[in-house]
Amino acid sequence: MALPPFDPLIQIDLDCNLKRSTIKTARAEGNSPASRRVRWGAKLAGLAVGSVALAGCSPAFGAYRGATTQGRSTFHLFQGFAITAIFVGGITFGLLFFVLLRYRKKSDAIPKQRHSNVKIEILYTVIPILIVVGLFFFTVKVENKVDALNPSPNVKVTVTAFQWGWKFYYPATNTTVIGSIKHYPQLVLPEGETTAITLVSQDVVHGFYIPAFNFSRYALPGFVNHFDFTPTSAGTYIGRCSQLCGLYHSEMLFSVKVLSAQQFQSWTSSQAGKVTA
Ligand SMILES: [Cu+2]
């Protein structure tokens, strides 16, 4: 049987007439098995989120937790972004699958037509704007913290990048550590104290990257970069050049050793005036 041609005006009129009965039916459906399932689902989801929060569970989502106070802040920012993304993705895919299943084609009848829903449109415009504003706010806050320079750092180190290696110079004790592609140098830092790094490049653009610190910065020829590290846990970490800088870029490695403040003191006094390769 051929269906009558669809007329949106007739349909809108039908919708208005149906409104009262629809509300009554909706009230009656409040206790239907389907709505009970939705309520149970919401309760279970709330319980899951609540128990994760109460358990103090702090998932890393594959990122480094940051071995400096600055890197830790970057990690927390990343964590916030990841949780927001999961939340937004969960709602988006949840609604998508709900609509796919609930409103799949069940017959040839033309479904109820609707021109617009202003409330929902305002909601899905305002909520994403608020999310973006929130993420922007926390990003600026963390970037300011990571870039903040301590006016009186405990240690100063000048890092020079060159093709293909790194030079670490401690002006207070006139100590120099130079690396090469055959011998990777070690940057020694004190734990719990602030080290001010001055980063320069001797030739081309390099990238001073310490994954465990959640930190990377360009080493630019003709431009000086300043930043601070305040390591929070002793240990040895890998560092590498993060900018393709020529033939032996892949060999432009170094390590970072974080010592206790006391151990660092004895290391600096033993290295005073020395040049090690
Ligand atoms: Cu490089």
- Low-pLDDT runs: 1-29
What would CATH call the homologous superfamily of the largest domain?
Cupredoxins -  blue copper proteins
Please give the order of strands in the largest beta sheet.
8-5-1-2-3-11
**Considering DSSP H and I runs of 4 or more, what fraction of the residues is helical?**
40-55%
Reading off the top of the CATH hierarchy, the class of the largest domain is best stated as: Mainly Beta
The ordered string of helix (H) and strand (E) elements is HHHHEEEEEEEEEEHE
Specify the structural class: alpha/beta
Count structural domains. 2
Distance between the termini: 90 Å
Number of strands: 11
CATH topology of the largest domain: Immunoglobulin-like
Instruction: Tell me which CATH architecture of the largest domain applies here.
Output: Sandwich
User: What's the gyration radius in Å?
Assistant: 30 Å
Cofactors and ligands: copper (II) ion
Number of helices: 5
Let me know the average pLDDT.
86
What would you say this structure looks like, in words?
The chain is of the alpha/beta class and 277 residues long. It has 2 domains: 56-148, Orthogonal Bundle (Helix Hairpins); 155-276, Cupredoxins -  blue copper proteins (Immunoglobulin-like, Sandwich). It contains 5 helices and 11 strands; from the N terminus they run ααααββββββββββαβ. The strands form 2 sheets. The protein has a 6-stranded mixed sheet, with no helix packed on it. β2 and β3 (175-178) form a beta hairpin. The longest helix is centred in the N-terminal third of the chain and has 34 residues, at 69-102. It is elongated, with a radius of gyration of 30 Å. It starts with 7 loop residues before the first helix and ends with a strand. The relative contact order is 0.12. The model is unreliable at 1-29 (pLDDT under 50). Bound molecules: copper (II) ion (CU). Copper (II) ion is lined by residues 161, 206, 241, 243, 245, 249, 252.
